[in-house]
Amino acid sequence: MSRSDFPPNYEETGNPLYPPQAGGYPQPPPYGFSGPGYPQQPGMFPQPGMFPQPGMHPNPNMPMGGLPPMMPPMMPPMISPNEPLNQDGRNSYGAGKDEDTEGFADSSWDNKSVRHAFIRKVYLIMSAQLLVTVAFVAVFTFCMPVKSFVIKNSAVYWVSYGVFFVTYFVLVCCEGPRRRYPWNIILLAIFTLAMSYMTGTISSYYDTKSVFLALGITALVCIVVTVFCFQTKVDFTSCGGLFCVLGIVLFITGIITAIVLSFKYIPWLHMVYAAIAAVVFTLFLAYDTQLIIGNRKHSISPEEYVYGALKLYTDIVNIFLNILQLIGASK
């Protein structure tokens, strides 16, 4: 690889990858979608909206280790965190020196030690989350009493889903709890336990070989994407509009697929949707990874380590669940 193929040096502040923008970016609506209080601004840099789908819902009528006979109902829409907002509802995307720069930052990355410490903290937290999730998946897959319990008691799944929903939105929408220690860690721990239970429950409906294969493929995909993002000069953070469209398309496709499969289960249709979702979440993983490593058009503030870990964790879990559905549907 030639010298020109490497990403630009973080210390070359005199010659940044992108020239400074005058006056900052216009204010986008929260999380990439227009709302009553946030009208669309001309020239807005759109952000990808994503609807995390922890996967298939348990079907108590399905035998253990078997393929669900039909697509479960579509999960309630949930917008993925795309950028932390300030207390006044504005983002600090590319803001100038005189503007609030709490959420996303440029100058913070000039300090290489701060950037490296932030990356280490994010990946340590994410690794702990993934270890908990893998432990849940292993117990729910190999321990037959636990496997039988979670399949017969689907109410616990829905309780965990409610906890997942509440903690997710608190961490995404509330800047205070997200940044205030130890509440941010407590909320993130509750969120991780809830999502781990959901992931383990979904995994209990598939055979052991499918679960292992999905775990291996997910690990390989994550390693390749991470290495690529650290080495490439391609800036995924400048493609916010594309990711926004992908998120909307995936959500609409999921609703249509759920309606169709609720009448008759069609394995190939299930496989197509799972494949599309896995690819989209892989692209989101690349986007979020570059937001964390910095030195791109947009980056996450070093104060948002919980937010960064949340983004990576949800991307990886969704990749795993969609790959698992793809493998399960193929059988």
UniProtKB/TrEMBL annotation:
Membrane topology classification: Multi-pass membrane protein
Any one Gene Ontology BP term: negative regulation of apoptotic signaling pathway
Main location: membrane
Ranges for region Disordered: 1-59, 80-106
Keyword Lyase: no
Family listed: Belongs to the BI1 family.
Protein name: LFG3 protein
Source organism: Polypterus senegalus
